[in-house]
């Protein structure tokens, strides 16, 4: 979609219908809440057939970029990050879709593995592990809180490394080839602290993911306990029949 006209750039448009001026060279998107003209007027002004305009709007609705509301019309909404459930990192997925991944390390330490974590990682209890929490952004918007444990003997990690690169990139750079993972996906309400970090209201829905990843030698190389804003994020699964 094109840039906002100068008269409305920098403020939210939520009542008046925006008459769109298409500038294909502009990186500035329409503001969240912007209400579009009706399909007929929009098609006529942009020189498109009405069926083409209708299909284009339906496509954007299906992608979660527009929403239709009874009595209001068609509005721009926040785009969700849609992620295929596969052995990739969130950093890789955001970079691949040009969502400008950024990371802030909230805590970083080494500590002995608890009995439960040792079982998950297949290491003796008390083995030194890195324990860290990161806040992952898509552009300027917080998207996920990532809590991870990694056996300290696998590689050298620093907070600076984790802010500059995704964890899986760092593992690969140290010769660790990820092969398989076991993963559990769920949902719950945000605590007050999580809501503050993610820019959500307390009790807002969060998606959860717990993952243990293994390398090509069968070693568990990381354990992650992650939460994602359900309003900005979704998992995609492809199911095959027998």
Describe the SSE topology.
Layout lengths: L16 E2 L16 E2 L2 H8 L3 H13 L3 E4 L3 E4 L4 E4 L5 H7 L4 E12 L2 H7 L6 E11 L2 E11 L7 H6 L2 H7 L4 E12 L2 H7 L6 E11 L4 E10 L3 E4 L6
Parallel strand pairs: 1-2, 5-12
Antiparallel strand pairs: 3-4, 6-7, 7-8, 8-11, 9-10, 10-11
Helix pairs in contact: 1-2
Write up what this structure looks like:
The protein contains seven helices and twelve strands. The chain is α+β, with helices and mostly antiparallel strands. A hairpin with a 4-residue loop joins β10 and β11 (220-229). The chain has helices spanning 39-46, 50-62, 90-96, 115-121, 159-164, 167-173, 192-198; strands spanning 17-18, 35-36, 66-69, 73-76, 81-84, 101-112, 128-138, 141-151, 178-189, 205-215, 220-229, 233-236. The chain is elongated and about 70 Å long. The protein starts with 16 loop residues before the first strand and ends in a 6-residue tail after the last strand.
């Amino acid at each position: 979609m094109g840039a906002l006209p100068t008269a409305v750039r920098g403020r939210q448009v939520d009542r008046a219908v925006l008459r769109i001026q298409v500038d294909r060279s502009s990186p500035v998107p329409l503001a969240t809440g912007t209400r579009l003209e009706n399909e007929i007027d929009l098609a006529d002004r942009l020189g498109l057939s009405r069926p083409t305009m209708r299909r284009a709007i339906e496509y954007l609705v299906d992608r979660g970029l527009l929403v239709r509301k009874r009595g209001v019309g068609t509005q721009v909404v926040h785009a969700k990050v849609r992620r295929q459930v596969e052995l990739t990192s969130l950093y890789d997925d955001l970079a691949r879709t040009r969502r400008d991944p950024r990371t802030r390390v909230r805590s970083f330490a080494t500590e002995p593995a608890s009995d439960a974590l040792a079982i998950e990682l297949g290491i003796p209890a008390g083995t030194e592990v890195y324990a860290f929490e990161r806040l992952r952004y898509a552009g300027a918007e917080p998207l996920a809180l990532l809590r991870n444990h990694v056996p300290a003997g696998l590689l050298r990690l620093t907070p600076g490394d984790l802010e500059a690169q995704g964890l899986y990139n760092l593992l690969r750079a140290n010769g660790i080839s990820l092969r398989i993972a076991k993963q559990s996906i769920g949902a719950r309400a945000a605590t007050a602290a999580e809501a503050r970090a993610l820019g959500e209201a307390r009790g807002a829905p969060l998606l959860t993911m717990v993952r243990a990843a293994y390398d090509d030698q069968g070693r568990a190389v990381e354990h992650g306990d992650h939460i994602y804003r359900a309003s900005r994020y979704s998992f995609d699964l492809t199911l095959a029949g027998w």
